[in-house]
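Assemble and predict.
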Amino acid sequence: MWDWRQSGLKSGMADRFWETKRLDEMTDAEWESLCDGCGKCCLVLLVDEETGGVFETDVACRLYDPEARRCGDYANRLARVPDCVRVTPENAGALHWMPRTCAYGRLARGEGLPDWHPLLTGDPKSTARAGAAASKNLLSEADIAPEDLESRIVIERPGRPKT
Ligand code: SF4
Ligand code: SF4
């Protein structure tokens, strides 16, 4: 979860670094600016152990702020939420549960950014306008018992494309 406006980077950057650099060549600011702010990696997911299917719920991580679509404590997220996964150049292509639209996975798969990505539009709201962001109408996992999560399933998350 990142707001590219805080990164010091400008949208529509002339050098379009995401097209010229590998993920492991990017600066920290460039890397963070790839996040489109969709919030979908902060939803509680359930996995069908038989089929491997991944299901989105309308429940979010206890640190997530649905209104802002941001982590409530990004700097300390890994210490505060042990199962929060840090996306890296090494794992970006392997996190099968991430949304297909996530820029990290897309670039790792050689797909490029979607045309609504804030780095291309200059507008951080373009992710939501494209229908690619998480709903703002979410429960917090702090307020729901684990045994009730199954009843909160909203949709099956599409799997990774076959490579
Ligand atoms: S799924 Fe990807 S693009 Fe969306 S908030 Fe998470 S890291 Fe950012
Ligand atoms: S701690 Fe929770 S809200 Fe913050 S980035 Fe991780 S999953 Fe998202």
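The radius of gyration is 16 Å.
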